[in-house]
Design a protein that fits this description.
CATH class: Mainly Beta
Helix content: under 10%
Number of helices: 5
CATH superfamily: monomeric porin ompg
Shape: elongated
Distance between the termini: 25 Å
Strand content: over 45%
Order of helices and strands: HHEEEEEEHEEEEEEEEHEEEH
CATH architecture: Beta Barrel
Oligomer: single chain
Number of domains: 1
CATH topology: Porin
Number of strands: 17
């Protein structure tokens, strides 16, 4: 039985609340990553499964998969870790997600599959993430197609390639639905290399896997700024006239989002892995429309050059570290820390990639329903536990 390895999607567990907070840059932490509007998540099946190809007596795995994910997340200052914040804002939230998948084609060295995710979250504290304390809200739904291939395998050396195209993100969350988002379109690719440490014959520290991923997404929106048709307010236009507007803020939405991620996974035992990942996510926003002049009491003035040439570029950095364990073929869990934040803080200085006021700790429990069904039907086998990718956040 091969050593269990955490997939890159696991290492990038998505933290929905952080995405809601980052109104000037679309991003998300965590897993499944996934990737939300702008979340360029790696393929759901990141690599060909580590199945023993020389055991014909093994039960043939079912083509479908279904995971129920229960995630608990809190900011570090909520649990008393890190620096004290100037304004206390404890945040703890819980979410449930369903992650179905189906392998359309599953060959010995490559597979073609479709997968998706839909979930709901509840924020238990009185933070500014939700309108009401204890409010439930949906997360953005995601649907993607994935191609995965084992490029090379020689003993414990293995090279894998993954491609997700397209990655569709639907605005089912409250913040996306109420700010004019229509549909997220994206793609991502990954390349992984596994090398032996003590080798597969050892009880621990068998291999180390290094994975690189890159992605891109574009979100179709109703306007270049957040808008809501139910919101109507009279405003003075640059020409001095009064007009009714549904614009929610002056911030511009992100037009193009990219991501570049490097993750390393250490196989501590056959069922326990430790993954660390670093991600750099640049975004390019829409440019505001040009105003010829602004009407004032004394006449008309041209906008200042600094205003006319305002920056449309921002960067989100993400660091995540987690330990995951496959307890049974039907159950796995992960305990981790993730810091996803804008590269520039409110004071204009660069933030530490390893820690910021947005840093979070999380515990994720995953029930693999497909494995439960196989066991109940008598066709399941514990031999496949090592080949199951732990589903994370």
């Amino acid at each position: 039985m091969k050593r269990l390895t955490l997939g890159l999607a696991f290492a990038l567990a998505t933290l929905t609340p952080l995405a809601a907070l980052a109104q000037d840059a679309e991003f998300s932490l965590g897993a499944g990553a996934d990737v939300v509007p702008g979340e360029e998540s790696p393929p759901a099946d990141s690599g060909v499964e580590d199945e023993e190809l020389d055991e014909p007596s093994k039960p043939k795995p079912v083509p479908w998969s279904l995971a129920l994910v229960w995630d608990n997340s809190a900011t570090t200052d909520t649990v008393g870790i890190g620096q004290d914040r100037q304004s206390v804002d404890p945040t703890y939230d819980m979410s449930f997600a369903l992650r179905p998948g189906y392998k359309i084609i599953a060959e010995e060295r490559w597979s073609l599959s479709v997968s998706g995710e839909i979930g709901a979250m509840r924020e238990f504290t009185n933070s500014n993430i939700t309108t009401r304390e204890g409010e439930w809200s949906l997360t953005d739904a995601r649907l993607q197609a994935g191609y995965n291939r084992l490029l090379m395998k020689d003993g414990d050396f293995a090279t894998t390639f993954g491609l997700a195209l397209p990655v569709l993100t639907f605005p089912t969350s409250k913040i996306s639905a109420n700010t004019g988002r229509i549909l997220g379109l994206g793609t991502s690719l990954s390349l992984g290399q596994s090398v032996p440490l003590l080798g597969s014959s050892a009880d621990a520290l068998q291999t180390f896997t290094l994975t690189g991923a890159a992605g891109y997404s574009h979100t179709l929106t109703k306007a270049t700024t957040p808008v809501n048709g139910d919101f109507q307010r009279s405003r003075i236009t640059p020409s001095g006239l009064t007009a009714v507007s549904d614009q929610l803020s002056t911030g511009m939405l992100t037009k193009h989002q990219a991501s570049f991620t490097l993750a390393g996974t250490l196989g501590i035992t056959q069922t326990i892995s430790w993954t660390n990942s670093f991600s750099w996510r640049p975004g390019w926003k829409y440019q505001p429309s040009e105003a010829g002049c602004v009407a004032i009491v004394s006449g008309c003035v041209e906008p200042d050059e600094g205003v006319a040439e305002s920056t449309d570029f921002s960067v989100v950095t993400v660091f995540a570290s987690e330990v995951g364990m496959q307890v049974l073929p039907e159950f796995s869990f992960a305990l981790g820390y993730a810091n996803g934040t804008l590269q520039l803080g409110p004071e204009g200085e660069r933030r530490n990639m390893l820690y910021s006021p947005d840093a979070r700790v999380y515990l994720t429990l995953v029930g693999h329903i497909d494995a439960m069904v196989q066991r109940a039907s008598g066709s399941g086998s514990t031999a496949g536990a090592g080949s199951r990718q732990i589903a994370a956040r």
